[in-house]
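Submission sheet (multi-component)
Chains listed below:
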Amino acid sequence: MSGKINRDDLIRQKIRDFEKAPPPEIWMGIRNGISSGRRKMIPLYLKYAAGIILFLGSVSLLKYLIPAKESISPLTVTEEKAIISKEELKSLQSLSEPNKAELADAAESEGLSKEEVSNETIFTAKAKSSGEKQVSDLSFTGEPVIAVNIQNDEIFPEPFRGNVLADAGGSLPVQITPFNPEYPLIERSVSERVYSWDDLEPEEFHESHEPAVSVFSLGAMISPIFSYRDIAGVSASLTEYFNEAESGKFGYTGGLNFGIRAGKRFSFHSGLFYNRLGVSVNNILAVAEFKESWSDEIRFEPEASSIYLVSNSIGSIKGSASERAKYDYSSLSPASPASAVSTELNYLNSGGFYAPADNYVADEGSIDQFFHYFEIPLTLRYKLIDKKLDLGLLGGMSTNFLVGNQVVYNQNGNRNNIGRTSDIRTINYSGNVGLGLNYDLSEQFRFLFEPQFKYYLHSINQEGLIINRPYSIGLYTGFIYLF
Amino acid sequence: MLLVEVPEDIIKGCRKGDSRCQERLYRMLAPRMYGLCLQYAGNEDEAKDIMQDGFIKVFQKFDQFSERGSVTGWVRKIMINTALEKFRSHIHHVSIDERIINDKEIPESDILESLTAEEIIQLIQELSPQYRLVFNLYAIEGYSHKEISEMTGISEGTSKSNLSRARGILQKKLEAIHLKSLKIRK
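Outcome: structure written.
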């Protein structure tokens, strides 16, 4: 013992008057703390406001996290509904007092004398009741558990959660509270792992016992999307014209999603999605040939001998062979449909198609340009909040393969497929960002709600004079299965 | 412990809340108290927190200081209590590799004499919070296990075993330093 005392004295002599200049910012913090009358310069009303907001937020969140069926009131469990059998309970009760051999072992291993070792150095468990088993009212997991008190006010004052394996076999989902009432139970979940009584070492209690984590996920998602485009590379006046003439369209997307977990909060996802994007173009003039054999009534039949004058920012529209469609994408000049008609009729009269100018009638309509893609995304997801209701961020890139292209003419409620837009890039890449709201329906199933924004990185057309990059906004919903 | 003599006018000024007197008092005691905070903290950031919170308490409660006692001693007690509050407010874990070793005969005076105060404090900082706290209160401040039990809320037995473990770990670290110094000499 003298060696220990000498050492203590030596250490005391060395460090008792030790001085070190503190960093200057400490005095700034002290001064601010004194002048405001509070620590950390937080106004009192802000503290109260933060407390109220936190309380309301917690109450709101609890509605999502706590299933409605949970009961937190004590419940007496009958034999039939018992969590453990009476034999197991007896085994647990028999472990309540350490025997002499355990005390001796603990003394030897801890390097302490027998007098220094007491119940406080060895964990003991006592069942809360005998005979009828009382279900704990401390649990918020929704599952009945048995609370046992452990004589545990030694060097590990924090609560312990875990399972205790009774000698009779089987596991007891227990929630163990420390003996010292100053350390209230703060953990709610119950571990699935099982330990044998012999394996219980003090260090064991500091490991977090988390259930096995699913690595893979497979799911399906759908979403309505709103698509439009961003144009560049032309004059301001033409940009203004196209922005007035064109508008976004609602489409849809759907597909399968596959994910791999990469850490507690990160996961990578890919899959295969089908997307339908679109743009509406107004100021479309359909010119129909007026046939002399018709009666006074003018009949407008878009399928026959129709000429469509289209000015749009994406590309040329090619009609079917039976139609004579004229598209005005490349000239970039039409300021109004009227002048376009005049220009076109002049062209026709000069050698295109022979027809008197006054045999043509024109009608205004709109066209919808649709583009169908198969998308292969590669997305990284990061969980900001990892609870039953997760909140996360997602971002990544997609490869989009053009698989369909369609132009539909709308006029007076009639819709007709008139061809497709030419020179569209067959592969395009998009950048994707979004928010992820995931709700755990069960251990394996999860509901997803993810608003996402996708922006195509290249112009939709291959060699257009106008750089036209589509983008879409969608509300992706779906389910995934974890395994 | 060497006490710092604080002039009477500074004490009176601090009672009135005079900011200049407060700053003068702080400048006089800060190096000593920061050294104390480093002893109780696990790292510099924790020491800064204890120091800042402690001095704020000192100035907010200065009217409770009895002029019969020493200002330095009173401030020191507040610092230690602040460190205790920080200990109580956090859940502490014991490192797995902190195990008791048997006492061995090592020339402890030689080793300790060769170490600076800052190096010894560094060794103490490396202890887990429970061990460090009990070691500081018992070995440095001179409190009994009963007093430590009342201050920290742990039992006397726990206080004793914490102290024993702390000593054992410090001994192990000193032994390592001793062996290293032997190798260097060779």
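Remark: Residues 44-65 of chain A form the longest helix (22 residues).
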